[in-house]
Amino acid sequence: MVLFITGTCHRTCWYCPLSRMRKGHDDVYANEKKISSPDEAIAVAHLMSAMGTGITGGEPLDRRDRVVEYARALKEHFGPDHHIHLYTGTAPSDEDLFALVGLVDEIRLHPPYEEWESILESEFIKSAKQAKELGFDIGIEVPALPGLEKLKPALPYLDFLNINELEWGETNADEMRSRGMEPEDGVHNAVMHAREWAEELRRCEKVHWCSSVFKDSVQLRKRLIRIAENTARPFDEITDDGTVVYGLIEREDNTIPELIRELGDEGYEMTPDGIETAWWILTENAGILDGKKSIIERYPNRGFIVEVTPV
Ligand code: SF4
Which atom of ligand 1 lies at the shortest distance from residue 87's CA? Predict the structure, then answer.
């Protein structure tokens, strides 16, 4: 699960990928759902059978007490094996680290671009050493920018270094353009050349590359499939993309046709939209079922409707 702890952040990275909806707003989201309590985060984690949580922002450590509150609740509920990693753009102080011991397993540091040149003299390496001594897994996670290789001297102090392919977004597009950057194509939000900037570092041990396609498609798809498996009704069909497909009958008098009633409780559901059942029941019996009939494809747990096909 991705737990977005706040949209506020003291830094102003020109490449910041946060959307306008989240940037600067002190809101909490569990995946895409806006929440206001650790119990709601636990419910979302259950929905997708989450095995771990990544805490992000904004700057999570600007709301350290909130991080502690949510991480504690998740660990208490799911047990110590629920892996929690924290992303931060600060070099956590000793006080920060002591507060997180036992609650966060892994810390991913995001040193500012301007500090890459002198990373060994930065507070980030001091933090990394202290974190290691306290038992955290410690790494750096940065977007692919020109000059990535300057981070190479930090590798001996880290367990890993993650590079995320630089992404084009609504809030950073002007900054990208002013630096002569362009999107790779019209379909994905990867930035042209980002892969080349990471080339040298990618050959090093401990370095992991996360492409924007992987983040967009593979991670999202896996999450949707888990949610769909936990929430689909017996007659919903789960697609390879993690969406669900079912049939909808809308009738003015809201009566249930005999043929549908015979399917039993597991074969249909009355919802505010109408009578919902397996999509193939509609296509196979289109001639004898009265009412407006359509096949609906949507994100699981009554998420966004992707497609409506009239039958
Ligand atoms: S540290 Fe992260 S959230 Fe803050 S401005 Fe930079 S990229 Fe955005």
Answer: 2
